[in-house]
């Protein structure tokens, strides 16, 4: 069973950039497809991006296309979410998730493992 720990959240101004990290342990990292989701207060958990096991395929949510980028670290046990041109509407708790599936699932139910989340706040 894999454990996921997110870090890198914080308070930034609109237009700034931020990089989130998701460190995985307890499993063979390359056996999982990875995803990032976010949840703002009073809203449902929203799909941000997913990355295939091999790292060769990605799927982005419409609201972050062209601004956010997912990647695997050189050690391959870390996944990053580079967030550029941040907007106040990006404010949310960001969650890292992992699944055994080869599919780039855009739904929370597609993932078996979750981190505890990291808060991102973007001021206007």
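^ Assign residues to that structure.
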């Amino acid at each position: 069973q894999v454990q996921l720990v997110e870090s890198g959240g914080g308070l930034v101004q609109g237009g700034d950039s931020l990089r989130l990290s998701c460190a995985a342990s307890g499993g063979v990292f390359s056996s999982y497809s990875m995803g990032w989701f976010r949840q703002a207060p009073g809203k449902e958990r929203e799909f941000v991006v997913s990355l295939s096991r091999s790292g060769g395929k990605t799927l982005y949510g419409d609201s972050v296309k062209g601004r956010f980028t997912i990647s695997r670290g050189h050690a391959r046990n870390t996944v990053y979410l580079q967030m550029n041109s941040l907007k106040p509407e990006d404010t949310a708790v960001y969650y890292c998730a992992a699944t055994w599936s080869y599919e780039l699932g855009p739904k929370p139910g597609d993932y078996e493992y979750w981190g505890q989340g990291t808060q991102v706040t973007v001021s206007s």
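The radius of gyration is 13 Å.
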